[in-house]
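so my prof wants the structure for this chain in the tokens format not the other one, which i didnt know existed until like an hour ago. anyway here's the sequence
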Amino acid sequence: MDIDRPANVSFFDFIGGVQLLQGEDTRTAIPVILIGICVSGAVGNLLVLLIFLRDFRNGKGSEVKALLASLASTDLVILLLCAPVRAVTYYKQTWTLGSFVCSTTDWFQHSCVIAKTLILAVTTRAKHTLVPSTATGPLHSPTWIHGALAFIWIVSMLFPIPQMLFAALVPRGRDTLCVSEMPKCASDFMGLFYKIYPTAAFVVPVIFTLAYYTKALHAAVNHAPNPQHQSKVTLVLLCLSGALGLMLLPEWGTFTWIRLGYNKPPVGLIIFAQILLYACSSLSPVILMTMYDDVRQGLIAIWFLVTCRGTKRIPRVKCPKTEGNGAEVGANAVGNAVSQEQEKTFPDVEHFWTGRRNTHVEEEQDPVPWEREEKML
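here's what i got, hopefully its the right format
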């Protein structure tokens, strides 16, 4: 990946993934890893979105769930639109996606990453209680969430605009490279910008979010009226914030390292940082499914809904409940079905035998008294 930096630029970096890599193993292994992360993460985030949508339709939504749904949507966009570009670049080892994608790929990815960080910071203001449904429809959420999300995405798209301005295609023999190169005339201003940019977009929001949820977790455990529920939700948000901070730190570190004009970091570190960025988007739904009770219960409900649809051909057999193990549940379901079949009787026959059992007739109401007298004689 060695390439000489032009004399009139202050830094020189690849866009959309490291290019001109040597070795067939690297060319094959990295795209496979990225594709695996994309597929698993996309499935997880889609399930999380379905669960939150189901909760809002059933009137069980909350402000935190609305923001976490936005977070899952952002992760899904990163995995479906940003990661495949890197996979193609690592496989081809050159740039083959055109000038428009070259100009916008890093800008769009940074916008999504900043939006993720700010959305988690905004969850510190959100309530964990349920949002009541109104007459306008079941999908109700407070107005401030829409305004906050709009503000977050506007800021997220404005901050990384230099990523789009300094992107360019550079020919190299038969191949074409997508690089970011900043002219020396703008080095002083952009040097200051690249010190403020990571601090405002990543460091400050992550530290604020971690500090807030650490303090909130301590307060929920010791002083909250319902400490178990509040501490669980707070712990989930704290884990999400911690995972985001740790897994995005190498990407922000290498990005700032290169932009400030220092020696280029090792190629292995750059690739590792990019893989961690996409792995972070795949880890978020795993944290929600394993630690967030509402998401876990929703996942179980969706699982039983899917499995019950396959048993519709069996009449009058309801889907087994989640209590007990599988063998006990199946045995109870079969036993209940058999007992119901045995207890079935036809209404006319039941009425007939009931009438026949009631053989005691009062003397004054006997319609044929002479027959009773003959039997007595």
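also thought this was worth mentioning. Confidence is low (pLDDT under 50) at residues 133-140, 319-331.
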